[in-house]
Amino acid sequence: LRIADVFKARGDLVSVEELLAEKKRSISSRNDLNRLEIVSGQLMMYRGELDTLNEHVREIMSWLKSTDIEFNDLLDVISLNLAFHKEHELYLKFGTAQLLLQQNKRMEALSILENMTEIDKPVIGELVQYQTAYIHFLQQDFQIALESAQVLSGETIYSELAHILQAEIVDFIYNDIELAVNIYLEFLERFPDSIYYDEIRLRLRQLAS
Description:
By secondary structure, the protein is mainly α. It is built from 12 helices and no strands.
C-alpha cells in the first residue's frame, strides 16, 4: 500500500486502481482484502462518488465485526456522507480538496475549502472550517489558524477539535500559559462528554505543576 500512497500523492488514481486490482487477485485473507477495499473507498471519495461510496462502505461493514476498529471508522464515513445527502456537487469539491491535501497541495485545497464555508448543514460547515484552520496551522500561519478555529462554536466533533487547536496554539506556539489554561477550562465546561476530556485535564495538571 505504500506504492499506492505514492501514486495518490501524484494524483494518479488510475495507477492506484490497477495496483489494487492486482493485489486483490493475489490475496485471500479477508482482513487484507478489507484494507484494500477501504483504499478503493478513498478513491471514490476523491472522485466525489457519493452514492457509490456509501454502497461500498456498507458492503465492507457487512464483512466486519462491530468490535473492529475499521467498523467505527466506516460508521463515521457513513455519518459524514449522510450530511452530504443530495449535495453531489458539493461532495465533488470536498473530495477534490481531500485529494489535493493527499498531494500536499495545501493552498489549492484551501482555495476550494474556503469557498465551501458558507454551508447550511452544521457538520459539513464545521468540518470545512476546521480543515481550513488546520491547513493554516500546517502553513505556520498561526494567527489566521487561531482566528479560523474561533469561528467554530457548535456541538460537533469539529468544534471540539477547533477548540483544542486554539488551546494548543496558545499553549505551545505562543507560550501564553494563562490564556491556554482558560481555553482548556472552557473546553472542559463546553464538552464534558468529549473523548478528549481526560487528555485536557492531564494537560491542565501539567501546567499547574
